[in-house]
């Protein structure tokens, strides 16, 4: 069995698939010694084989994966008694190393393990089924590539690294959720569930770091968006209230006045941005008429 797909066109630059495939190898089937111009990841589905890189030999068994780095001489071979079946993905991009590190792989760590064999095989088979050239298939395949790496990352279970403290990370993610969902009916419980925290603990973090509750932050964010719409657009107040997550215009007006001290209508009158002047005549035509007189 041998299945292979090469991706000819590419709309991505950070991280993208070059080709992939599945192969059931014969005893002692080998490749190399060879040098590749790209990153290549092989994953053993069943059987056994051996990988040689940087003067080391690695025994590869089901669930193991080995990384081939660009411009390095490598060799791999199937076991004589129990030859492996493996799948592979070749990939490139200017952020490849970042994605590999999330899976526990780098130039010093060429082997990783993942138990999600059936899932990974299904991903490759799914890519192979989308083998016709189209924008939709390119996007679809890109999504599957991320799912493949998500499986390896899940198995690696590398702790999330950041320059921020754990509290700041959760607050940042909570604010991100509010920014993306403020137009919808959301609760503090929804925010807490998104960042996987207890509701009361999330509230205490907001009070400690922002000196307001998540609900107060959501309210202020909605009203800030409302002030922008009132100043910059001609949308009716009713529509603005809906756009900012309020199904009831009266509740919106009450909340707006509580924060700004003005009703939405009064705020618009005082803070209306002056629109660009729109002429209802052709100034060039008027100028020509002036000179012809």
From TrEMBL:
Keywords noted in UniProt: DNA-binding, Transcription, Transcription regulation
SUPFAM superfamilies: Homeodomain-like, Regulatory protein AraC
Residue ranges of domain HTH araC/xylS-type in the record: 172-270
Listed PROSITE patterns: HTH_ARAC_FAMILY_1, HTH_ARAC_FAMILY_2
Pfam family, one: HTH_18
InterPro entries: AraC-bd, Homeodomain-like_sf, HTH-like, HTH_AraC, HTH_AraC-typ_CS, Tscrpt_reg_AraC-type_HTH
Gene3D superfamilies xrefs: Homeodomain-like, Regulatory protein AraC
Matching PANTHER family: ARAC-FAMILY TRANSCRIPTIONAL REGULATOR (PTHR43280), MMSAB OPERON REGULATORY PROTEIN (PTHR43280:SF30)
Protein name in UniProt: AraC family transcriptional regulator
Biological classification of the source: Bacteria, Bacillati, Bacillota, Clostridia, Lachnospirales
């Amino acid at each position: 069995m041998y299945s292979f797909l090469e991706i000819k066109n590419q709309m991505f630059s950070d991280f993208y698939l070059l080709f992939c495939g599945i192969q059931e190898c014969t005893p002692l089937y080998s490749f190399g010694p060879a040098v590749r111009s790209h990153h290549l990841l092989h994953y053993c589905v069943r059987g056994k084989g051996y990988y040689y890189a940087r003067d080391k030999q690695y025994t590869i068994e089901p669930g193991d994966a080995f990384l081939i780095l660009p411009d390095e001489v490598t060799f791999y071979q199937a076991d004589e008694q129990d030859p492996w079946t493996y799948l592979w993905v070749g990939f490139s991009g200017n952020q490849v190393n970042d994605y590999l590190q999330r899976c526990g792989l780098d130039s010093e760590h060429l082997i990783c393990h993942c138990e999600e064999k059936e899932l990974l095989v299904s991903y490759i088979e799914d890519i192979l089924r989308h083998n016709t050239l189209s924008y939709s298939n390119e996007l679809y395949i890109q999504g599957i590539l991320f799912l493949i790496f998500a499986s390896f990352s899940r198995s690696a279970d590398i702790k999330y690294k950041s320059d921020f403290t754990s509290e700041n990370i959760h607050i940042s993610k909570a604010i991100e959720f509010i920014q993306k969902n403020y137009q919808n009916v959301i609760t503090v419980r929804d925010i807490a569930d998104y960042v996987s925290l207890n509701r009361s603990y999330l509230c205490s973090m907001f009070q400690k770091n922002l000196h307001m509750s998540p609900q107060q932050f959501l309210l202020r964010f909605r009203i800030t968006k409302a002030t922008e719409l009132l100043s910059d657009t001609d949308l009716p107040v009713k529509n603005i209230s809906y756009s900012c997550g309020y199904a009831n215009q009266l509740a919106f007006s009450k909340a707006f006045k509580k924060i700004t001290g003005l009703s939405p209508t009064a705020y618009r009158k005082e803070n209306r941005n002056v629109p660009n002047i729109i002429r209802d005549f052709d100034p060039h035509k008027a100028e020509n008429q002036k000179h012809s007189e």
